[in-house]
Design goal:
This protein is mainly beta. The protein has a domain of about 55 residues. Helix content is about 0%, strand content about 40%. The protein contains no helices and five strands. The strands form two sheets. A three-stranded antiparallel β-sheet has the order 3-2-5, with no helix packed on it. The chain has a two-stranded antiparallel ribbon with strand order 1-4. The chain is elongated.
Length: about 90
């Protein structure tokens, strides 16, 4: 389990949490990541990105922007990749 918090009192406007490297997926073996989040800022944005082993760029695969929600929400993302990757 991982936990990341970004306080409005800090000067940074973003934070990053990375997984370890996952093996490629296929029809028999796929990856689902379930996570819980809480947006407590009036203009908060949470993004989930995928970086393939052979690429330097991160591709945005999920995003939520929102107003003050004051409740925990959950989301599950299914990932398909023919090569090693990080989320």
């Amino acid at each position: 389990a991982y936990f990341l918090s970004l306080s409005s009192e800090t000067r940074s406007s973003s934070a990053t949490l990375r997984t370890s490297v996952f093996l490629p997926t296929n029809e028999e073996h796929f990856c689902q990541i379930t996570f819980h989040y809480w947006i407590s800022q009036m203009n908060g944005t949470l993004m989930v990105g995928l970086q393939k082993d052979s690429e330097d760029t991160i591709t945005n695969i999920w995003q939520v922007s929102g107003e003050l929600q004051n409740q925990w929400k959950a989301n599950t993302i299914t990932i398909n990749s023919t090569e090693k990757y990080e989320v």
